[in-house]
Amino acid sequence: MGERRARSDRPLSASPDRSTPRRIALAIESSGPGGAENMVLRLARALRDAGDEPRVVTLRPGWMTDRAEADGLPVWIVPQREGLDPLWVPRFAARLRRERIDVLHSHEFAMNVFGGAAAWLARVPSVATVHGHAWVTGAPRRTRAYRVLRRLGMPLVAVSHDLAGFLAAGLGIPRSAIEVIHNGIPVPPRPEREGADERRRAARAELGLPADGPLLVAVGNLYPVKDHATLVRAAAELAGARVAIAGRGEEEEPLRKLANEVGLGARLHLLGLRDDVDRVLAAGDVFVQPSRSEGLPLAVLEAMAAGCPVVASGVGGMPEAIVDGETGHLVPPSDPPALARALGRVLESADGGFGLGLAGWERVRAEFSVERMTERYRARYADPRPARAAR
User: Fold this and answer.
1) 23-184+371-381: CATH architecture
2) What are residue 261's phi and psi, to 5 degrees?
3) Which of 249, 235, 261 has its CA nearest to residue 34?
4) Which stretches of the chain are assigned E, i.e. beta strand?
């Protein structure tokens, strides 16, 4: 598939007047579906609403580009050849110059490194966001690549304080060298207790789920790091509990087998990839994020924003969003009995977890809205220092 781009006759300016829209290329290797790709889409929409000119950049078409184009966002497909493609960097640098891009905002390792190198070559200011621990400092060549980017002047942004500390230690740089900008989401109106039971039953019916029994919901790809197996084991300890997981991946069959082994059986509902996550959250009594490792997952923020009480493993950036016992519950990772106890506390509480969910909504509105995230990134983009300037 060829590259897709929006055209403009705006003259090239070495120091663009900020009364004109800022052209921002939001670049990520994968087209999803996933949390980082979702964040790119939300940021692109918010930047457009704020008066800037974002475009979504990736290596191949897919889930994310389909949704970007449906939203009327310009999309660039900038393919790489199989194996080593040494000419990709100068090709992308030429594209950045030709399109008069003001800022390249790259996401995840491949675009941070190769896109960042192209921005340096094109003398375009750039920002690199890291979303998770995986594939960052586990290999020496990745560590060296991020150190080079740092020396070339690319600001590094982490989506949580925990991740920023991990990066600083792994790269051997000061913690102060990494900025933290939390992911943000659209925050719906304040949840109301009146009619909640009816809305929950209606959402279950729309999803084809039985109305009986407490429903534990999760949203995320079925990968080992998400550790849905711990959720299945914990749910088996709760009388009548059902589990519904929205996502797809390699763990689907192992999870079905495990459910049969522990007695959950037909009470496990694997919903596949869903675009109606709001309906999944509305159907649930508790949202569960049992991951072994995380940055700051959008799914947790979405659940809190929906007023759904959250129980999560206390890893990564989750304690930055969830105040244990106040806006949700945190448990040790890979500990089914601890998870079952926390879930039981929510389900057996006098209000069924409504107060916990409301406190979660209030925290997301205050600290994790898409407006707050966008404001902070726009401030970062306004930094006039070019990519060649050392920091």
Assistant:
1) 3-Layer(aba) Sandwich (3.40)
2) -70, -35
3) 249
4) 23-28, 53-58, 75-77, 103-107, 126-130, 156-158, 178-180, 215-219, 242-246, 268-272, 286-289, 310-313, 329-331
Question: What's the gap between Cα 21 and its chain centre?
Answer: 26
The CA angle 42-48-53, to the nearest 5 degrees, is 120
Among 95, 27, 96, smallest CA distance to 64 is for 27
**CA atoms of 116 and 105, how far apart (whole Å):** 9
Q: Are 286 and 124 in contact (CB under 8 A)?
A: no
Domains of the chain, by residue range, sit at 23-184+371-381, 196-367
Integer angstrom CA distances of residue 81 from 9, 84, 88, 360: 31, 7, 8, 45
* Number of neighbours of residue 193 by Cβ within 10 angstroms: 13
**Residue 137 — pLDDT band, cuts 50, 70, 90?**
low
Asked whether residue 11 carries a pLDDT value surpassing 80, the answer given is no
d(CA 30, CA 39): 12
Same fold? 23-184+371-381, 196-367: yes
- Nearest CA to 334 out of 354, 318, 312 is that of 312
Burial letters 307-325, b for 16+ CB under 10 A, else e: bbbbbbbebbbbbbbbeee
DSSP string spanning 283-308? H-SEEEE--SS-S--HHHHHHHHTT-
Q: Is the pLDDT of residue 106 over 90?
A: yes
Q: Is residue 63 over pLDDT 60?
A: yes
Using N-to-C axis directions, what is the helix angle for 228-235 and 252-262, rounded to 10°? 20
Report in angstroms the alpha-carbon separations of 208 from 103, 133, 195, 308, 350. Answer: 45, 36, 20, 20, 28
Digit-coded pLDDT (tens) for 209-233: 999 899 999 999 999 999 999 999 9
Main-chain phi, psi angles of 161, to 5 degrees: -65, -35
Token representation of residue 340 = 């079952």
- For tokens 């069959």, the residue is 253
Confirm if 254 and 275 have CB atoms less than 8 A apart: no
CATH architecture of 196-367: 3-Layer(aba) Sandwich (3.40)
